[in-house]
């Protein structure tokens, strides 16, 4: 199933914030208005 709801560039940016800059998985969905399991799914 394709995920067309979020822009791929936004996905990459958010993942990079977590992996490279150490932002928590809990803070990013609140900051970017994502569903609670979205970041974990990516």
Write out key terms for the chains shown:
42 residues, mainly alpha, 0% strand
Nutshell version of this structure?
This protein has 42 residues and is an all-alpha fold.
Protein model, in words:
Helix content is 52%, strand content 0%. The chain is mainly α and 42 residues long. It has one domain. The longest helix is centred in the N-terminal third of the chain and has 12 residues, at 8-19.
Measured distance between first and last alpha carbons? 13 Å
Number of domains: 1
In terms of structural class, how would the helical and strand content be classed? mainly alpha
Low-pLDDT runs of 5+ residues are none
Strand percentage lies at under 5%
Largest sheet: none
Give the mean pLDDT: 89
Task: Give the SSE layout.
Blueprint: H1 8-19, H2 27-32, H3 38-41
